[in-house]
């Protein structure tokens, strides 16, 4: 009923930039908080950044000043602009969104993940 499709991952050198996108589709009534998580090999999935429907943002300390989350509500899309990338940012990045579909209560949905590799 709802799909989250991510794009924008890839291989980049340290100090480089990438922009991730995630678009939700389906029988969507409203999208509340949207966010980006990441999971590196052998580590737990962690919240990187989130943004509420009203535009309030939150970041994990390790990405503050380097990453920027934004959203386009008309396009049901959330973005993650990543600048000054470091090898420790290497992970699979997942989009998450709290979505209210028609005729149901809000629940969280996940994208399929996109690989970000920072290496020289």
Q: What is the averaged pLDDT score? A: 96
Structural class assignment: mainly beta
Question: Roughly how many Å apart are the termini?
Answer: 40 Å
Low-confidence blocks of residues = none
Strand content: over 45%
Question: Could you describe the largest sheet, including whether it forms a barrel?
Answer: 7 strands, mixed
In which range does the helix fraction lie?
under 10%
Helix/strand order, N-terminal first: EEEEEEEEEEE
Query: What is the approximate shape?
Result: elongated
Helix count?
Answer: 0
Rg estimate, integer Å = 14 Å
Record field, number of beta strands: 11
What does this structure look like?
The chain is an all-beta fold. It contains no helices and 11 strands. It is elongated, with a radius of gyration of 14 Å. The relative contact order is 0.33. The mean pLDDT is 96.
Topology:
Elements: E1 2-7, E2 10-12, E3 18-26, E4 28-39, E5 46-51, E6 57-59, E7 67-72, E8 77-82, E9 91-101, E10 107-110, E11 114-118
Parallel strand pairs: 2-11
Antiparallel strand pairs: 1-3, 3-8, 4-5, 4-9, 5-6, 7-8, 9-10, 9-11
Key words describing this protein structure:
120 residues; mainly beta; 11 strands; 59% strand
Summarize the structure.
The chain has strands at 2-7, 10-12, 18-26, 28-39, 46-51, 57-59, 67-72, 77-82, 91-101, 107-110, 114-118.
């Amino acid at each position: 009923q709802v799909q989250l499709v991510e794009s924008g991952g890839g291989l980049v050198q340290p100090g480089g930039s990438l922009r991730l996108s995630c678009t939700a589709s389906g029988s969507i009534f409203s999208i509340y908080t949207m966010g980006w998580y990441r999971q590196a090999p052998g580590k737990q999935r962690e919240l990187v950044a989130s943004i509420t429907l009203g535009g309030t943002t939150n970041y994990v300390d390790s990405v503050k000043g380097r990453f920027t989350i934004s959203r386009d509500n008309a396009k049901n899309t959330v973005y993650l602009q990543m600048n000054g990338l470091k090898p420790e940012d290497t992970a699979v990045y997942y989009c998450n969104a709290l979505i209210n579909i028609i005729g149901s209560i809000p629940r969280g949905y996940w994208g399929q993940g996109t690989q970000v590799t920072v290496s020289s």
